[in-house]
């Protein structure tokens, strides 16, 4: 049986990982603040956006997000329904994303739905992303919806 101290640590870790994800969403929604986003990742982390691209390493992640607002000048990341598993100094999570956004091309309002598959590590600076994988379910025009046109 785990001690009360061990159980408390898991609860604290869960909350810190939730805060990490919230900071990521807030930085994305703040004009894709590349420095703030990169600071949430380990030096050798991987950000995998599927068709959006893959960035390996903190410097590449910073470079990728420095240009993100050129494609999505507005985004509101609503992350929800986390399933977080803690294993000592490592953790994994699956999150859902529902995001209203504006695509720069055509100044088009869109809905994006995706699933995040995250891996984390406890570092000297707290929990950080080791791997963040985004799998998009749809990216659809706001006025048409995902039933009529699941991908723009």
Number of strands: 7
SS-based class: alpha+beta
- What average pLDDT do the residues reach? 96
Return the domain count: 1
Strand content: over 45%
Radius of gyration: 16 Å
Helix content: 25-40%
| CATH fold assignment | Nuclear Transport Factor 2, Chain: A
Report the CATH architecture: Roll
How do the helices and strands follow one another from N- to C-terminus? Answer: HHEEHHEEEEEH
Determine the number of helices (DSSP H or I, runs of at least 4 residues): 5
Largest sheet: 7 strands, mixed
Give a quick summary of the entry.
With 152 residues, the protein is an alpha+beta fold.
Structure description:
With 152 residues, the protein is of the alpha+beta class. It has one domain (4-148): Nuclear Transport Factor 2, Chain: A, CATH 3.10.450.50. It is 32% helix and 45% strand. It has helices at residues 4-29, 34-38, 58-66, 68-71, 145-148; strands spanning 41-48, 54-56, 74-75, 78-87, 90-103, 108-123, 126-141. Strands 1, 2, 3, 4, 5, 6 and 7 form a seven-stranded mixed sheet that branches. The longest helix is centred in the N-terminal third of the chain and has 26 residues, at 4-29. The chain is globular and about 55 Å long.
